[in-house]
């Protein structure tokens, strides 16, 4: 009710102690299509649902390589993500050049958090409207971090962001205890199954599902569509479902529905 | 200080450059390239280490070997490796061998007035799958050739390659009858650098040899004399 009075600038607090501009920025992340990440002791995986605005356009890439041992999945404003990606690539390359080793994932995420926070407290700047899921393997450990426009970053066993991510998160919450001991194949399967929970009526195909892996003796790699298809086939085999045709109108309706639910 | 003859005598000037010795060579075939370098690092008449690499794999289709001053070789290779990664991130694909060759030339000329004391050879397969070798001087003069040798043993190796690859000064074989096969090139490169190791004191210890073709790079190592 009082929101509209206190949301016109990033520098204005609400009486409840909230910064609405930052929350609106996080809303931009929630509008992006689903991206989720999960990790075991040896591997970390991100799985994303790539949207295409219409039949004529290509699917929007959501997974990017940062360095041989690290990569990100994004949700939200892709243009902002590109800026953060450039920053991360620069940091990791610089560290490799100067110290000859891989920059630990946690360190680059911390730098990213600092960078994001600066945009919440500076005149004329706006928060980055993108959330990242960063996966990496360094120091013999797997890492999964989430960064948000607020500048907060947390480490996760598994996490999902973007639209309809709650369904994926529920699946991950049910199954995450088993993840640490799993092999790569099973881990990816869980990721795809979780994505299926939040895909709604949209059919998962090798063109709109993105998967990337990193881990012990596994450099960060975005899987080719044919490899993605093998995982999708395994899901279909176990579930034995009949696929329904993708309808754009339904997807738009659902997006509008989500918007209405979020506004209070 | 003037002597009785009237010439000036100058105190020895400090030089930022030293030569750590070693030999490098590369040979290109129709659809492959072979590149090799020894690993001995010397200073004066001493051996500093028996294994200091002079070889860098830049992409699956292109590698570089450098002789000269180890510090400059190390730095040049570091810079090259970073630049190759930046290119791949920007363009979404690895650098072609021609692009690498041009980049090396530019990196060297960038230091025209305080050069890298490095004598480089870049080898690989080009966009058409044809083997290529590029040789340089210290400031980046670029030339595409069929074979090249650099370093302390280059004057021992180059004539052998002239004779065996370009068939110069041969009366026993015609150019049309000769086919440079991969096995022939590998044996030739091995023999050439081994022979250099026999006579050149700065060449020896180990050799890193690498064969590049459209399937990728196959790296190998073998021993030379330790004396």
UniProtKB/TrEMBL annotation, chain A:
<dbReference type="GO" id="GO:0005737">
    <property type="term" value="C:cytoplasm"/>
</dbReference>
<comment type="subunit">
    <text>The 26S proteasome consists of a 20S proteasome core and two 19S regulatory subunits.</text>
</comment>
<dbReference type="InterPro" id="IPR001353">
    <property type="entry name" value="Proteasome_sua/b"/>
</dbReference>
<dbReference type="InterPro" id="IPR023332">
    <property type="entry name" value="Proteasome_alpha-type"/>
</dbReference>
<dbReference type="InterPro" id="IPR000426">
    <property type="entry name" value="Proteasome_asu_N"/>
</dbReference>
<dbReference type="InterPro" id="IPR050115">
    <property type="entry name" value="Proteasome_alpha"/>
</dbReference>
<dbReference type="Pfam" id="PF00227">
    <property type="entry name" value="Proteasome"/>
</dbReference>
<dbReference type="InterPro" id="IPR035144">
    <property type="entry name" value="Proteasome_alpha1"/>
</dbReference>
<comment type="similarity">
    <text>Belongs to the peptidase T1A family.</text>
</comment>
<dbReference type="GO" id="GO:0019773">
    <property type="term" value="C:proteasome core complex, alpha-subunit complex"/>
</dbReference>
<dbReference type="GO" id="GO:0005634">
    <property type="term" value="C:nucleus"/>
</dbReference>
<keyword id="KW-0963">Cytoplasm</keyword>
<feature type="domain" description="Proteasome alpha-type subunits">
    <location>
        <begin position="6"/>
        <end position="28"/>
    </location>
</feature>
<protein>
    <recommendedName>
        <fullName>Proteasome subunit alpha type</fullName>
    </recommendedName>
</protein>
<keyword id="KW-0647">Proteasome</keyword>
<keyword id="KW-0539">Nucleus</keyword>
<dbReference type="Pfam" id="PF10584">
    <property type="entry name" value="Proteasome_A_N"/>
</dbReference>
<dbReference type="InterPro" id="IPR029055">
    <property type="entry name" value="Ntn_hydrolases_N"/>
</dbReference>
<dbReference type="GO" id="GO:0006511">
    <property type="term" value="P:ubiquitin-dependent protein catabolic process"/>
</dbReference>
TrEMBL record, chain B:
<comment type="function">
    <text>Component of the proteasome, a multicatalytic proteinase complex which is characterized by its ability to cleave peptides with Arg, Phe, Tyr, Leu, and Glu adjacent to the leaving group at neutral or slightly basic pH. The proteasome has an ATP-dependent proteolytic activity.</text>
</comment>
<dbReference type="GO" id="GO:0005839">
    <property type="term" value="C:proteasome core complex"/>
</dbReference>
<dbReference type="InterPro" id="IPR029055">
    <property type="entry name" value="Ntn_hydrolases_N"/>
</dbReference>
<dbReference type="InterPro" id="IPR016050">
    <property type="entry name" value="Proteasome_bsu_CS"/>
</dbReference>
<dbReference type="InterPro" id="IPR023333">
    <property type="entry name" value="Proteasome_suB-type"/>
</dbReference>
<dbReference type="GO" id="GO:0005634">
    <property type="term" value="C:nucleus"/>
</dbReference>
<dbReference type="GO" id="GO:0051603">
    <property type="term" value="P:proteolysis involved in protein catabolic process"/>
</dbReference>
<keyword id="KW-0647">Proteasome</keyword>
<dbReference type="InterPro" id="IPR001353">
    <property type="entry name" value="Proteasome_sua/b"/>
</dbReference>
<dbReference type="GO" id="GO:0005737">
    <property type="term" value="C:cytoplasm"/>
</dbReference>
<protein>
    <recommendedName>
        <fullName>Proteasome subunit beta</fullName>
    </recommendedName>
</protein>
<comment type="similarity">
    <text>Belongs to the peptidase T1B family.</text>
</comment>
<keyword id="KW-0963">Cytoplasm</keyword>
<keyword id="KW-0539">Nucleus</keyword>
<comment type="subunit">
    <text>Component of the proteasome complex.</text>
</comment>
<dbReference type="Pfam" id="PF00227">
    <property type="entry name" value="Proteasome"/>
</dbReference>
